[in-house]
Specification:
Length: 252
């Protein structure tokens, strides 16, 4: 499935109109599971979940899960350590530094592009959704924190969105040193761990975490589909040799 086509003007002979010939066609990269249906289903599920919570359903379930976790919090210190896996700011810096390293090694600005898009997408999407729903966290002392509009930034879980986006990007930037199995592990393990810790520590409602999984799943698939090594960057960078392929050339 193509993202866009490049069309380059060809020189016209005297007395003839300038013609345009088809240039190289960019295609989206394959993601797993394949197909845009998965993205559509995740978006629909997120919308339905949000509307259901807004209507007051699933709220009692969220409260029961919170109360159970509060009554069985003996593993909280261990869970708190693992919960640091969802710190978006830290991994933004890590991915940014890795991207700068590959810019230097490959003499190309392309490694910076997915980092910029990942930061912009996650920041804008999370800011909008959290501000609109305005939901307090399970630990919040405000009245009825389980409701939208209670005053907070709990929905959807930023920990889970960060886990999908930044660990996916981390696996991409570490690809020259890792096999496909290890890249898969880096992408999957943190979201699984954070699904447990964010709920168990009562930093997020069960439905917050579910929503974060759905949003993070879609955002990462959008980023992963972009053919970063083929996106045209303009003649200025090309003339200076800073637009060469840099991200997918050494994957094992």
């Amino acid at each position: 499935m193509g993202l866009w086509s490049l069309r380059v003007p060809t020189a016209a002979a005297p007395g003839r109109a300038l013609t345009v010939s088809a240039g190289p066609r960019l295609t989206t990269r394959r993601v797993a599971p394949a197909g845009w249906w998965w993205d559509a289903l995740a978006i629909i599920a997120f919308v339905v979940l949000t509307l259901v919570i807004n209507a007051g359903h699933l709220v009692a379930f969220d409260l029961r899960v919170r109360d159970w976790c509060a009554a069985h919090d003996g593993l909280a210190p261990v869970a708190g350590v693992f919960n640091y896996l969802g710190q978006g700011g830290f991994f933004t810096v890590v991915c940014g530094l890795l991207a700068v390293y590959w810019v230097w090694r490959r003499h190309s600005v392309r490694p910076l592009l997915p980092v910029i898009l990942a930061f912009a997408l996650s920041y804008v999407v999370l800011t909008v959704f959290k501000d609109v729903t305005n939901r307090a966290a399970p630990r919040s002392p405000v009245p009825h924190p389980e409701l939208f509009g209670s005053g907070g930034v709990s929905y959807p879980s930023g920990h889970l969105v960060n886990a999908f986006v930044w660990y996916g990007l981390l696996a991409l930037l570490l690809a020259p040193w890792l096999t496909a199995r290890w890249r898969w592990f880096i992408r999957i393990a943190p979201p699984v761990i954070l699904t447990v810790t964010t709920i168990y520590l009562r930093y997020h409602w069960f439905t917050d975490t579910t929503a974060g999984i759905l949003v993070g799943f879609v955002l990462w698939r959008l980023i992963a589909r972009v053919p970063w090594d083929d996106v045209p960057l303009g003649s200025w960078l090309a003339r200076r040799g800073w637009d060469g392929p840099a991200l997918f050339t050494h994957m094992r």
